[in-house]
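Side project, low priority. Logging it here so it doesn't get lost.
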Amino acid sequence: MKNKKLFWIFLIVLGGIFMIIGSAIGSAYFYQFLYTNLVVPYVAPEFLPLLQSILTVLEYIAFYGGYSVLVGAFFLLIKWVRIGKIIIMIATSFGMLGLIIYALTWGVGYFSIPLNPSLQLILAQIYSLFTFNSGIGFTGTVLAVLGRYGAKRTEKAEKASSTSNKKSKNSSDSKACPKCGATLPLKANFCNKCGTNF
């Protein structure tokens, strides 16, 4: 299991290096758009500085792209899995969502699919939020996203195997009463439930 986890972390690091080489960064404009269009009109003025600070931190994580992916891989390595996965997700511009939007826009352009002009404008605006800049940057983003999902799957498998190991360990540390079937400690001389000596 450990080797699989290290493989996925290596894949994330490789993706981060490719993102740095290809200048792939998350969209800082997306967080500015969130602040001006969704936060300011609907949030009370006393909470605006707090939300602006949170969105600024997210913006910087996205802006540093590949470097943030490397930091996320480090957090995965030191067992801060949740923080590492969140940083990688933000650094890759929401990971899978960015790749889906990119593939959808590419498919519409490549296959010359006619779209309603307003739908085409919306797709172009959403596409502009995700910046891949080059093939190497795109490859790095794909590797980082695949590594993140692989590390997540490996973590779930480790939790499941540790739970089953605990159950099997607990079952070998006990025995059953021959008369009533009650579960007793392995070194028990009598049953507390029915009083049978053995």
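Brief comment: DSSP finds eight helices and two strands in the chain.
Revisit when time allows.
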